[in-house]
Specification:
Elements (H helix, E strand, L loop, with lengths): L6 E4 L5 H12 L4 E6 L11 E4 L5 H10 L5 E4 L14 H28 L4 E5 L12 H21 L5 E6 L18 H14 L3 E3 L2 H8 L5 H17 L1
Parallel strand pairs: 1-2, 1-4, 2-3, 4-5, 5-6, 6-7
Length: 242
């Protein structure tokens, strides 16, 4: 699809990657950009149409779909990370991440799929993570949700193919946002991530590996679990050592 003249809706558009997606969509000629956030007053971009949206609230998702029936590109960006482990961490926190990062994205797809079909098929971008493929202490709930979101993305891609909807999974390591502020390592600029994702949509790509980190991690997936974990330990040590 052509980004120019598209009608896009971006979740979590008040900061970070979502704000960068909304800004680049405007700059690349989208006819309309719905910029959504739980607190719509925090969206500060010119040239967008602001909508309130909490993707973990089905009623809010339904209201957004009713308010934006002309959408041809859905960018599922909003997400949370609670820093929770699976065995000893708060089960409520694990559930909260799942509700947002998996069921929130799926709810958006379910509500907007009919509009995408009416508007020619269009495209969906699901912002995932290289952590769909590996875990780590203090981030295993996040790993769980991103792995589940990857599987969900692959499933809905098959289900929506008949209506002509492209579903693009976007993986990255770390982006230069508030969520990654504590990591003193190289990070992809949010605008570069947005451009890589939108370029992938225009190319009809099912998957975008937006940076070297995501490409390296995926390349190790054929390894046995013990070899994969050892390779990831070495890579993480080298990353944090600079």
């Amino acid at each position: 699809m052509d980004i120019n003249n598209s009608v896009a809706l971006v979740t979590g558009a008040n900061r970070g990657l979502g704000r960068a997606f909304a800004q680049r969509l405007v700059e690349r000629g989208a006819r309309k950009v719905y910029a959504t956030a739980r607190r719509p007053e925090t969206v500060d971009l010119p040239g967008v149409e602001v909508l309130p949206l909490d993707i973990a609230d089905p009623a809010s998702v339904r209201a957004a779909a009713e308010a934006a029936p002309d959408v041809s590109l859905l960018v599922n960006n909003a997400g949370i990370q609670t820093g929770t482990d699976l065995v000893t961490g708060s089960l409520d926190a694990v559930r909260r991440e799942l509700e947002t990062n998996v069921f929130g994205h799926l709810g958006m797809i379910r509500e907007f799929a009919p509009a995408l079909a009416r508007n020619g098929g269009g495209a969906i971008v699901n912002v995932l993570s290289a952590m769909a493929w590996f875990g780590g202490k203090g981030a295993n709930a996040y790993h769980l949700t991103k792995a589940a979101a990857w599987a969900m993305t692959n499933g809905v891609r098959l289900e929506l193919a008949e209506q002509g909807t492209l579903v693009t999974a976007v993986h990255l390591g770390l982006a230069d946002t508030d969520m990654a502020a504590g990591w003193p390592v190289d990070k992809i600029a949010p605008s570069d991530l947005a451009d890589a994702a939108l370029d992938g949509v225009e190319a009809g790509s099912a998957e975008v590996l937006a940076d070297r980190w995501s490409r390296d991690v995926k390349s190790r997936l054929p390894l046995a679990p013990e070899e994969f974990n050892a390779a990831m330990d070495r890579a993480l040590a080298a990353l944090t050592a600079g």
